Amino acid sequence: MLTIDYTLIIQLLNFLILILLLNIIVFRPVRNILNKRKGQMSSDAESAQELGEKTGKYSAELQKNISEIRKNGIKEKEALKSEGIGAEQKMLNDTYSVVEDKINRARADFEEKRIKARDSLQDEIKGFSTDLAEKFLGRGI
């Protein structure tokens, strides 16, 4: 049977002292560690979220800069290309004019030599025709 006597009060005091000691020695430090861990986890999560936002912002800025650099590169490439084409046209025009001058000088030299050759051949033809006539006729002309 269950009797209420002074041992029950000792057991009750023993139980309360045990709970108080367990609370001081075990439960309170464990709760403190869990609360610190929870605080650390939330601060780490906030830091990770901030870093994620910064990363997104920097990534967008980087992509923007890359696209601007590509556009500038394409513009510069086109400018250099058109400059090169202009220089090529100038070089070709200069070459064509030099070649045309050489061709004109060569034609003029050829025409001069042709005229000299024709004049000398005409003089020789007169001499040959006179010689030929004298041989056919057998007398001097």
Task: Give a short overview.
With 141 residues, this protein is mostly helical. It contains one helix and no strands.
Element order: H for helix, E for strand: H
Question: DSSP helix count?
Answer: 1
Fraction of residues in helices?
over 70%
Please indicate the percent range of residues in DSSP E strands (runs of 2 or more): under 5%
**Shape type:** rod-shaped
Q: How would a crystallographer describe the biggest sheet?
A: none
pLDDT below 50 for ≥5 consecutive residues: which ranges? none
SSE-based structural type:
mainly alpha
Number of strands: 0
Give the CA-CA distance, first to last residue. 185 Å
| C-alpha-based Rg, rounded | 58 Å
Mean pLDDT: 92
Structure description:
This protein is mainly alpha-helical and 141 residues long. 94% of the residues lie in helices and 0% in strands. The longest helix has 132 residues, at 6-137. The protein is rod-shaped, with a radius of gyration of 58 Å.
Provide the descriptors you would attach to this structure in a database record:
141 residues; mainly alpha; single chain
Topology at a glance:
Blueprint: H1 6-137
